[in-house]
Amino acid sequence: MLRLNPVYQKDLRTTARSLRTYIIIFAFNSLLSLFGLFALYFTFEYQQSLGNSVQYSAILEIYSVITGVEFFLLLLVVPAVTAGAISGEKERQTLEILLTTKMSPGSIIRGKLLASISTMLLLAFSSLPVIALVFSIGGITLRDLGGFLLLILETAVYLGSIGIFFSALLKKSTSATVAVYGIVLLLCLGTFGAVFGIHFLTQIHLNHLVTDGTTPMQADIGNWMLLLLGNPIATYLSVLKGQTGTGRSLAEIYGKYGNLSAVWNDNWFLISMILQIVIAVLLLFWSAALLNPLKKQPSVS
């Protein structure tokens, strides 16, 4: 039989017996159900009470609302779950015991990450009945659902590796949690802000160049748009646009701020997923190096 990672096995048992896990699952699905039922009511009952016909695109918007809420909750939960993975062991003074076992630092890191991913997959699969509301109406296929679950898994690995890294780098769980949320905020909003800022400065420069009274050209920041490849929200919007035709905000950013080649536009999800997985792997190797007692570096408090 396949031997489970001991750290993963131990954390999985602890998670399964923890009341906190059931509270998270209940709160997660309660919020998701609330938004899903509200979207259903607004799409059908409310629109019909106003005498408006229900459009087919409105059904797809229900899927967009439900998956959007679930993805947003994922961004909130993953840092909280992973930030204390290693720093918690430091605070309990059990990390040294783990390092004296036959397990390598890499195995410890993998076990912690797998335990965190398992929690996210548990949340994702527990939310399937809510997402199934859309299947009862039609418009979304199993392939679309599989693509969304793949996005959830990839994002959990990406954000989880960031949480594990700061948990290995810092001594306190509080410090690690603040650092992880700061990085996630920088990735999700900071990259959009950078794109907008670069476009704004480029547009000002073009406006100053126009001196003959003609209409100024629209600035094109081109490859600076690739900063969004590391943005989980941009990746989610690309998946949503491919499945439902919504996610217009990302398409508007492409058209208004920068023109990319068809290769980037057509394969944005695949390219961004590969890039984020590469970053995750590098962070996990770095985290293992931080735990290596033979290459011990002082932890930052």
UniProtKB/TrEMBL annotation:
Residue ranges of coiled coil: none
Asked if the keyword Magnesium belongs to this entry, the reply reads no
Q: Does the keyword Transit peptide apply?
A: no
Q: Which Pfam families match?
A: ABC2_membrane_2
**Taxonomic path:** Bacteria, Bacillati, Bacillota, Clostridia, Lachnospirales
Entry keywords, A to Z: Membrane, Transmembrane, Transmembrane helix
Source species:
Anaerocolumna chitinilytica
UniProt GO MF annotations: ABC-type transporter activity
* Record protein name field: ABC transporter permease
**Listed transmembrane segments:** 21-42, 62-86, 113-139, 145-166, 178-201, 221-240, 268-291
Gene Ontology, cellular component aspect: plasma membrane
